[in-house]
Write a structure and sequence with these properties.
Elements (H helix, E strand, L loop, with lengths): L1 H7 L14 E4 L2 E4 L28 E3 L2 E3 L9 H4 L4 E3 L2 H15 L3 E4 L8 H13 L5 E6 L5 H9 L2 E9 L3 H7 L5 H13 L3 E8 L6 H13 L5 E5 L7 H8 L9 H13 L8 H26 L6 H4 L1 H19 L16 H58 L1
Parallel strand pairs: 3-6, 6-7, 7-8, 8-9, 9-10
Antiparallel strand pairs: 1-2, 4-5
Length: 413
Amino acid sequence: MLELADHLDGRGSGPIDSIKGLVFKKDNQIIRNEPRPFIEDLDQLPDPAWHMVDVKQYWAFALNTSRGCPFKCTFCYNTRFHNGYRADLSVSKIIAQIEHLQKEYGAKSIRFFEDNFTFNRKRLREFCNGIIQRKIKFEWDCEARADLSEEEIALMAKAGCTSVGLGVETGSHRMLHFLKKGMHLPQMEKSFWLFVKYKISPRLYILHALPTETIEDFAQTHELMERLDFPPYLYMHFVPYPGTPLAEYCFNKGLVEAPKSLAEWGEFVTKAGMEMNLSDLPDEVLAELRSHFRRTYTTRRLRFAIRHRPGFLFTGVTHPIEFFKTIRDLFKSSLAYIKGEKDKESLPFNILKSPTIIWYRKHAQAVAEQVAKRTAELQREVDLLNRQLEKNSAGSEGEQEEDTLGSKDTAAV
């Protein structure tokens, strides 16, 4: 960006086609310059310019300490954008930034805002041990993969971690394989309960409206939520991002037409997140889910905190301002979510007990039974036909053998 700015300002030392990573139009032709390599050493980057921001206008501090993700989830932008690239800020650099935020701005809580803070396990352990050894007191939150060991989770808790986001996506074994998550449900459930054990609040990211997702896949996802005692979660509507394997699947299968221009892509992504249903789920089920998510947003969080982290309530005494601000924000969010739904029927806390979901599950089961019955009938007809063909073939061979013997007898005479 700096090179481009210098070029446009007349201070550049070379032609525009020498700026790596730039794509532009020239004489109505699209020009793609040589790709710019990713930065391998993030420590060479300057620290965030906090002095240029009115920090008091923001409700939280956030740091980005890594780039990229090496995993190959078929729905994720990383597979195309970073293409397996991953780089990490050093532990010493992270701790220096934390201490700066505490000294200059009184930071008590920090969120590590990146795809997977815990991917580099060696760095994770060094970071936690560094925080503990330097006796740095603060609470932190991050995105993690649900495959951490108990030792690592216990260390995170000791270093001040209070919450994590887990990309579970689905409770269906079939869908996990389809998405190439590289994880299994028992593994994710074990990690979830280990976080709860060490008083780290987990929130789940759930994807719905995925290609090939059926009502039974949907039910299995919410059966997982039930097994996890209805934890806080964020409902994410599937969006086919450009270049991702799952987007190509949708285009190749004719589920949706691929945008033909950059402008169309902008409209497409927005519409996909709001309106498109590329799954096998009825639109009514997704509408029910959205309504349920809005109505249980606050109660789900408070219920889970009271049941599994009751110490949260004591912050009303130790940190009353932060506590009541959290409660206020929760209810404000909840009211914003349910605005315009006052006339709708109330929904059960467990969405699987919703009349709409129950009806569609029974309907899908009835259809599946009819298909299975008809498939069995067709198989019996095929088996009967095969036996008849074998019988006819055996009879034909016998007749041919008799004709051959008869011909030999005639020749002998």
